[in-house]
Each structure stands twice: as structure tokens, then as C-alpha cells.
Amino acid sequence: VQLVESGGGLVQPGGSLRLSCAASGFTFNSYVMSWYRQAPGKERELVGAISSAGGSTNYADSVKGRFTISRDNVKNTVYLQMNSLKPEDTAVYYCNARRYLGSTVNNYWGQGTQVTVSS
């Protein structure tokens, strides 16, 4: 199983970035995909999630209206479009795949990609 994030970098406040997470080794279209982030000295927090078929999304209040999650179940990739970035969005962003089968949870993480918002 692999989740490989890309697209992070340094951006000025008000700018945009698009993160990608390429998945392999599991049945991508059976998993809820999420983006989390962790800033220095803080706990990892949920940014948003998208259902397995892509028909439903939810977001943290701090990013609503600025971030958009989407997925391509043919390319086995999930995206995070980040607009109107703020310095407080600076963090390592992680991709997560999760599936519940009865009492079993399959839960996978990517290695993370750094996003720095600074002038």
C-alpha cells in the first residue's frame, strides 16, 4: 500500500496550491479519503474528507470556502485545492485512506508534504 503526496511548497498569503495524493496497493474506490495537517507543536487535525464515490465532502470550519477536495477513481488520486492561503495554513499535509468492514478498519497514511504560507 502506498499513498504519495505531492504539490506542497512555499506560497505567499492569498496564493493557491493543489496537493495530490496518488494511491496504490488497495481498492481506492472503496475508501474514504481525507486530508489532515499538522503544524509545529500542534496535534494533527482533519482538513476535510471525501466519500468513496466522491459524492460527499466535509471540511473543517477553518478551511470551508477556501479548500476543495476531489478525487479521480480512475487515476486513484485524491486532490486538495487550496485557495486564499493564510500563514496559519502552514503545516505538513497528510493523505489518509480509511475503510470500515464490520469491526475491521483499514487505515493508511502518506508520508506528508510541507506547505508553507509566508511572504
Shape: globular
Q: Number of helical segments?
A: 0
Kindly, what is the distance between the CA atoms of the first and last residues, rounded to a whole number of angstroms?
Answer: 37 Å
**Measured on Cα atoms, how large is the radius of gyration?**
14 Å
Order of helices and strands: EEEEEEEEEEE
DSSP strand content: over 45%
Major beta sheet summary: 7 strands, mixed
Number of distinct beta strands: 11
Low-confidence stretches: none
Q: How would you describe this structure to a colleague?
A:
The mean pLDDT is 97. With 119 residues, the chain is mainly β. The protein is built from no helices and eleven strands. Strands 2, 4, 5, 6, 9, 10 and 11 form a seven-stranded mixed β-sheet that branches. A four-stranded antiparallel β-sheet has the order 1-3-8-7, with no helix packed on it. β4 and β5 form a beta hairpin.
